[in-house]
Write a structure and sequence with these properties.
The complex is a heterodimer.
Chain A: H1 2-27, H2 35-51, H3 55-78, H4 84-102, E1 108-110, H5 117-124, H6 130-152, H7 156-166, H8 168-172, H9 178-204, E2 206-208, H10 215-230, H11 235-258, H12 267-302
Antiparallel strand pairs in A: 1-2
Chain B: E1 2-11, E2 19-29, E3 34-38, H1 45-53, E4 60-65, E5 68-69, H2 75-78, E6 82-85, H3 99-112, H4 121-132, H5 151-163, E7 169-173, H6 181-198, E8 201-205, H7 209-214, E9 218-223, E10 226-232, H8 233-238, H9 241-263
Parallel strand pairs in B: 3-8, 3-9, 6-7, 7-8
Antiparallel strand pairs in B: 1-2, 1-4, 4-5, 9-10
Helix pairs in contact in B: 3-5, 5-6
The chains are: A mainly alpha, B alpha/beta.
Chain lengths: 303, 264
C-alpha cells in the first residue's frame, strides 16, 4: 500500500515535469536539456525559501526560476542562433553554479523540522492521514497544471507554439514572431519543470544539487510510456498521457526495486534503456517492413 | 499600393559567384491591380517576392506598401498585411494541426488576442462558410489534420488563410505549379474568385504563359533582374500567346547574341 501510494505521489509530482518535457520534446520538437538544470533550480529555490519560513513563496518562485532558465535557453537558441541542444547544455552547465549559489554553496539542504507545504497542511488538518494529505496535494497540483496547460494550448499563442514545432518554415513566413514564440514555449516548459522541482523539495524535505542528473530521461520515459498507453493523438491527450506515463513509470521502478529485479542504483540505466528502445521502435518497424517486402519480392522471383 | 524603387539585390557580393538578382528594378502597382509575372528561371521573379516579404534586405532601393516604407521592416511584421502562397503545398500549412486550427492561426490574433480561445463557435461557423464556397467538401472536415489533405486542398486552405483577414497585397508564387492540371484549374478559379471579391492587389508568378495573359489585368515579363515588358489594357487584350512567346525568345536571342559576341 505504501508502495502504491508513494509511487502515485511521486508519479503526480514528476508528472508536472513530464508535462514540461512533453511541451519541449513533442510540441516544440526540440529535446531541451535545460530541464537538467531548471529542475534543481526550482528545487533549490523552493528549499531555501522554505528554510527561511516562506514555503508558499518558494513554490511560486520555483515556477519563475524555471521560466527564467527557459528564457535564457530560448534567447541563446533564437537570438544567438546556437544549436538548440547546445543552448540547453550551456544553460544547464551555468545553472549548476547558480544552484550551488542559491543553496549557499552547500551540496544538500535539509528541511527537517521546518514547516513546508505538506507538513503545514497536515498540521492544519490533523484529522487527515499523512498519505492522504500528500496524495491530495500532489493530485491537486498535477490537476491544476494539466488544466492550465491544456487550456493554454487552445489559445492563439498556444496554437502558434504548436505550429512552430510543426512547420517552422510556414510560421516564419507568417505574421507570427517565431523567436518570441519559441522563447515563450521554453519558458512555459521549464516553468513546469521548476514547479515540479519546487514541490519535490518540500515533499521529500531536502534538496540535493545532483537531484536533476538524468531527469530529462525520466521525463522522456514518462512521455513515451504515456504514448504507448494512449497513442499519439491530440495535445490534450498528450498532456494527460504524460502524467499517467509518469505514474506508471514510478510503479515500474518501485516494483522492480521492491522485488529486487535490479538494484536501486540501476534506475537511470533502466530509464535510459526504456527511452532508447521506445524511440527506436519506428526505425525497427520500418526495417522490418522493408525486409518483408524484399523477402516477398525474392520469393516471387523464385516462383 | 505597391511601389518598388530602383531595387538592387546582389548575392555573394565580392566573391567570384557574385550574382545580381535584381538590377535596379522599378515597379508600381495600383490598388486592385492583378499582375501576372512571367520570365525564365533566374530572371529574379522569386527574388522580387522575397524582397517584398523581407526574407532579406535590399542592397539599395526602397519598397513602399500603401505609402508606408517597409524597406527595413521585419519579416513577420510585413506578413501582417502581405499574404503569400508558395509553390510547395507543404509550406503554407501546419500538417499536424486541423483545418480549423490552421485557419484560426491566420485569423484569430487580431480578433481574440493572444490568450483568447483560438477556435470558438463564432469563428468556426465563419471558417465553415468560407470553405463551403469552394465546393471541395472541406467544410465537413474541419477537424481533419491538414497533413491528410491533397496538395490542391492544402493550397486552397493556404489561400484562404492568406485572405481571411484581407491583406493589402497578395503574392502568389507559382501556387498551382505543383498540382495536376484539373486541380490547378480549380485552384486558379478559386484564386480569381477570392481576388475579385476582395478587390485584392495581387502579384502572381506563373510559367503558364496562357494563363498569364488570361488572368489578371496586367502582365510583366522579367529578365536578369529587371522588367523587360509591361503590358496592360487594350495592348494586353490584343496580345496572343504567340506574341508573348516571340517577345520572350526575342529577348532570349538578344542575350544569346551577346553571349556569342563575348565568345567570338
Amino acid at each position: 500500500m505504501t508502495l502504491l501510494l508513494g509511487s502515485l505521489q511521486l508519479g503526480l509530482l514528476y508528472g508536472i515535469l513530464a508535462i514540461g518535457v512533453y511541451i519541449s520534446f513533442r510540441i516544440l520538437n526540440v529535446p531541451d536539456l535545460t530541464t537538467e538544470g531548471s529542475f534543481t533550480f526550482g528545487l533549490a529555490t523552493s528549499a531555501m525559501c522554505a528554510l527561511s519560513g516562506h514555503f508558499v513563496l518558494g513554490i511560486v518562485l520555483s515556477i519563475f526560476s524555471g521560466a527564467l532558465a527557459g528564457c535564457i535557453t530560448g534567447f541563446l537558441q533564437t537570438k544567438c542562433k546556437i544549436h538548440p541542444i547546445l543552448s540547453g547544455i550551456i544553460t544547464m552547465s551555468g545553472l549548476y553554479t547558480i544552484n550551488l549559489a542559491v543553496m549557499k554553496n552547500a551540496v544538500n539542504v535539509s528541511l527537517i523540522g521546518k514547516t513546508e507545504l505538506f507538513s503545514y497542511v497536515m498540521e492544519k488538518m490533523p484529522q487527515l492521514s499523512r498519505d492522504t494529505v500528500k496524495t491530495a496535494l500532489a493530485l491537486i497540483f498535477a490537476l491544476i497544471v494539466c488544466i492550465i496547460i491544456i487550456r493554454f494550448f487552445k489559445t492563439h499563442i498556444g496554437l502558434c507554439i504548436r505550429a512552430t514545432g510543426d512547420n517552422e518554415a510556414m510560421v516564419s513566413s507568417s505574421s507570427i514572431n517565431v523567436d518570441a514564440t519559441k522563447i515563450f514555449a521554453l519558458a512555459i516548459s521549464n516553468a513546469c519543470v521548476g514547479l515540479s522541482g519546487g514541490l519535490m523539495a518540500q515533499y521529500q524535505g531536502y534538496a540535493d544539487i545532483n537531484s536533476s542528473v538524468g531527469i530529462l530521461v525520466v521525463g522522456l520515459a514518462s512521455v513515451i510510456i504515456g504514448e504507448v498507453i494512449f497513442g499519439r493523438r491530440s495535445v490534450t491527450i498528450g498532456i494527460i498521457s504524460a502524467v499517467v506515463g509518469s505514474i506508471v513509470y514510478r510503479y515500474i521502478m518501485a516494483l522492480a526495486t521492491a522485488t529486487h529485479i535490479f538494484p536501486a542504483f540501476a534506475l537511470k540505466l533502466v530509464s535510459a534503456c526504456i527511452v532508447g528502445i521506445a524511440l527506436s521502435i519506428p526505425a525497427v518497424k520500418e526495417a522490418a517492413a522493408l525486409s518483408k517486402i524484399k523477402k516477398e519480392a525474392g520469393n516471387d522471383a523464385h516462383n | 499600393m505597391l511601389t518598388i524603387n530602383n531595387a538592387v539585390k546582389i548575392f555573394s557580393q565580392g566573391t567570384p559567384n557574385e550574382h545580381k538578382a535584381l538590377s535596379g528594378l522599378n515597379l508600381h502597382l495600383e490598388r486592385g491591380e492583378f499582375v501576372t509575372v512571367v520570365g525564365s528561371n533566374g530572371a529574379g521573379k522569386s527574388t522580387m517576392f522575397n524582397a517584398i516579404c523581407g526574407n532579406f534586405l535590399l542592397n539599395s532601393g526602397s519598397i513602399f506598401v500603401d505609402g508606408q516604407n517597409i524597406t527595413y521592416m521585419k519579416e513577420h511584421k510585413r506578413a501582417g498585411f502581405i499574404g503569400r502562397v508558395f509553390q510547395d503545398p507543404m509550406k503554407g500549412t501546419a500538417p499536424n494541426l486541423t483545418i480549423e486550427e490552421n485557419l484560426a492561426l491566420a485569423y484569430s490574433r487580431q480578433k481574440t488576442g493572444p490568450f483568447g480561445a483560438a477556435v470558438n463557435k463564432k469563428n468556426r461557423d465563419m471558417f465553415k462558410e468560407a470553405l463551403s464556397e469552394f465546393n471541395m467538401g472541406l467544410e465537413d472536415r474541419m477537424q481533419t489534420k491538414v497533413g491528410l489533405l491533397s496538395g490542391g486542398q492544402r493550397q486552397v486552405v493556404t489561400l484562404l488563410m492568406c485572405t481571411l483577414v484581407t491583406p493589402k497585397l497578395l503574392l502568389l508564387d507559382e501556387h498551382t505549379a505543383a498540382l495536376d492540371p484539373a486541380t490547378a484549374e480549380k485552384v486558379m478559379e478559386i484564386t480569381e474568385r477570392i481576388v475579385d471579391r476582395n478587390n485584392l492587389t495581387t502579384l502572381m508568378i506563373t510559367h503558364n504563359l496562357n494563363s498569364a495573359l488570361r488572368t489578371g489585368t496586367r502582365t510583366i515579363m522579367m529578365d536578369s533582374g529587371n522588367i523587360i515588358l509591361d503590358v496592360s489594357g487594350e495592348e494586353r487584350a490584343k496580345m496572343t500567346l504567340d506574341d508573348l512567346l516571340n517577345m520572350y525568345s526575342l529577348k532570349k536571342k538578344e542575350a544569346f547574341d551577346n553571349d556569342r559576341m563575348l565568345l567570338s
